[in-house]
Design brief:
The structure is a single chain. By secondary structure, this protein is α/β, with parallel strands linked by helices. The chain is 28% helix and 16% strand. Strands 1, 2, 3, 4, 5, 6, 7 and 8 form an eight-stranded mixed β-sheet that branches.
Length: 238
């Protein structure tokens, strides 16, 4: 499969990543991407950017030859009620928002609590993608999660970084397979993200792609193989 967009990437602004925006753009262009998403961690992450950083996205050019840049955020889910670590006004001025759970922000709860936290976050109309719902430290009811994603028109992420042998996330392969099975039953779309924290990973979907092929996941349910579907995960017209 050919992937035309990588909407989950980080730069040195996130505090624990190692490449600049220009370095990420260069690799994205080399790999033939049409769309690149900048999704720095929300302000609750130690060392990450402040609210002002996101409010200043307006100064960043969006066109780089054949590549279009979208400036967003990986906002943090902060509790089981699905509250986020950035206000709606600031998020509304961005191109898109990913919502994710991180152990340094919210203590893992029961499967019920974790699932409800994710669903409540997805109920925010500014959230377009649910990031890496694949960590056994946050057990989830994937049937309920996928049904909610279908109703709320949120893409569930297949995170390539989660499948890395050194990933801190636990049970990702098994959890992604369970999620994909439910997505196939309910015809719910996923988006593959690299979760790059260094430029060499931008646009490299190798491990996620292998898993999708292994389970026979239909390409028509993968958002980022079709450039015409970019409008499903950004808040502005392509």
């Amino acid at each position: 499969m050919t992937y035309v967009m990588d909407m989950h990437t980080h730069t040195i602004a996130s505090g624990h990543a190692y490449s600049t925006l220009q370095e990420n753009i260069a690799v994205a262009k080399e790999r033939g991407l049409k769309f690149l998403g900048l999704s720095e961690h929300g302000p609750a992450v130690a060392g990450g950017p402040s609210t002002l950083y996101f409010q200043n996205y307006k100064i960043i050019p969006r066109e780089y030859g054949d590549l279009r840049l979208f400036c967003g955020i990986e906002v943090n889910i902060t509790d089981y009620e699905g509250h986020l670590d950035l206000d709606d006004f600031t998020m509304s001025r961005m191109d898109y928002c990913i919502a994710s759970m991180h152990t340094m922000i919210v203590t893992p709860g029961s499967a019920r609590e974790n699932t409800q936290a994710a669903i409540h976050a997805m109920e925010n109309p500014l959230v377009k993608i649910l990031g890496h719902p694949d960590d056994s430290r946050y057990p989830m009811d994937y049937e309920e999660l996928v049904r909610a994603a279908a109703q709320l028109h949120v893409a569930l992420e297949v995170n390539n970084s989660s499948l890395h042998p050194l990933s801190s996330r636990q049970g990702a392969r098994e959890n992604i397979c369970t999620m994909l099975e439910a997505c196939m039953r309910y015809r719910v779309s996923v988006i593959v993200g690299t979760d790059s924290h260094i430029c060499s990973s931008v646009g490299d979907f190798t491990q996620a792609d292998a898993l999708l092929r292994e389970v026979g996941f239909p390409e028509e349910l993968i958002v980022n193989t079709d450039p015409g579907r970019i409008g499903e995960v950004v808040n502005i017209s392509p």
